[in-house]
Amino acid sequence: MPTPPPPDAPASPEVAEIERAFTRITYLGTRARRHDRLRALAEVPLDRAAVALLRQIADAEPLRPGELAQRLGVEASHVTRTVPQLEKAGYVSRVPDPDDRRAQRIRLTEEGRRAIDRIREAGARGMQSALAHWSPEDLRQLATLFHRMADDFVAYAADEEPEPRVTA
What we know:
The chain is mostly helical. It has helices at 13-30, 32-42, 48-60, 65-72, 76-88, 110-130, 136-160, and strands spanning 92-97, 100-108.
């Protein structure tokens, strides 16, 4: 495993190109017009913030609101405002936290699971159309590398988190 460069070292040309491409993809994926199209195809009347919350819950449910905020990289107030809306719409419910009787976790309801499945299917169909000329081998390789990159980003982000201070 190569030694990482010092934090103040300039990025390699390869990493700079990856960052440029990743920024383009991220921009395209977060545009309001794209979300509106995806929402219409999936028939899920939720804003981008609510969809992001549902995606996180679906990937690691049930979660405490604080864990959800941390995974999304947002303030806890964002989650505490959005969860009641999702709950009222029937997409999520609160369940007791088995580790702490005073706390609750958020989980998807059956309607929430169906909604996130429709959102993911609509997104995958769009991606399938964009990548239709790619070979199955290229798609497998891209998926492998994307998962590897995501895992490394998650590990890097965890390393950047400050250690909780313990007071006596």
